[in-house]
Amino acid sequence: MTSALLPAMAEALRRRSRSSFVAAFGCIPCRPMWQNADAILTAAGEIENRLGAIEVWVNNAMCAVLAPFRAMTHDEFRRVTEVTYLGYVNGTRAALALMTPRDRGVIIQVGSALAYRSIPLQSAYCGAKAAIRGFTDAVRTELMHENSGVSIAMVQMPGLNTPQFEWARNKFAWAMRPVPPVFQPEVAAQAIFNVARRPVRELWVGSSTIQSIIGQFLFPGFLDRLMVKKAWEGQMTRRLNADDRQDYLEQPVSGLHKTHGRFSSEAKYRATAITSGVPGKALLGGAAAAGLLLAKWFISRKKR
């Protein structure tokens, strides 16, 4: 097994006495700027020269600002969009440049329930995730038109117990958190691995993701009102930020490269996952039927 690591992550592994891991699994550091298409193409070529053909490419570039939209500056919004959205666009372009001539390969976009159901205080990130979904759907149809052997999939994730909320830019005085329920990153890793082995159009991971996607199709207005309280207060904690807190918006933060965040006491190690194919359609159809029956029941009560 071989993989490429950003320099900061490779260095973090070495500092944590895991240099044997880096060597054993053939990890090499590379330094692409995800918003720079040429830099990613160069890094991809270097990886293939040193490790061999890239068969699976996982896009997961991201950064975030935790704040109301009007509290964000233009530069902050632009930075989140460039890294998160254009990072996926440029990564996909590089992957296709290598995979298309061989007519094989799998591109996996690490998505989020927020690609379907946005929440307050993460407008730039939600917008980028929704844009990634639209972009991926467009590229998929182009590959289908070409009868390409390259697959492109999207894995929609729930809230995960990663360091994201420890190093994202936070404009509140108190620490933030993912909206519960929270899942361990091993859940995400297993889902991505499964899709790499057996590509699907989309995989929805976690009951909260499934509920958000189906709910957005059926009751978008209700979810708007629900998010006003649940997602706003659900991201707050009573813990104040440290005075010397750093964030990763403009440059890497050292010392926080770890697998798990600070929510391990509540994070789950297992999650339901369904594809957007037949299982997802069946569940969506069942939810729609239940919604119609519920609406009919309310109407009949009003007529009495």
What structural keywords apply?
304 residues, alpha/beta, Rossmann fold, 5-stranded mixed sheet, 49% helix, 16% strand, globular
How many angstroms separate the termini? Answer: 67 Å
Low-confidence stretches: 17-24
Mean pLDDT: 87
Radius of gyration (CA) equals: 20 Å
Give the amount of beta strand, in percent: 15-25%
Write the CATH architecture name: 3-Layer(aba) Sandwich
Count of alpha/pi helices = 10
Would you tell me which CATH topology applies? Answer: Rossmann fold
GO molecular function: 3alpha-hydroxy bile acid-CoA-ester 3-dehydrogenase activity
Protein name: 3-oxoacyl-ACP reductase
EC number: 1.1.1.395
Enzyme class: oxidoreductase
Ordered list of secondary-structure elements with their pairings:
Layout: E1 3-5, H1 7-15, H2 19-24, E2 27-29, H3 37-51, E3 56-59, E4 65-66, H4 74-99, E5 105-112, H5 123-145, E6 150-157, E7 159-160, H6 164-167, E8 169-170, E9 174-176, E10 182-183, H7 185-197, E11 202-205, H8 207-218, H9 220-233, E12 236-240, E13 273-275, H10 278-303
Parallel strand pairs: 1-2, 3-5, 4-8, 5-6, 6-11, 7-10
Antiparallel strand pairs: 9-12, 11-13
Helix pairs in contact: 3-4, 4-5, 8-10
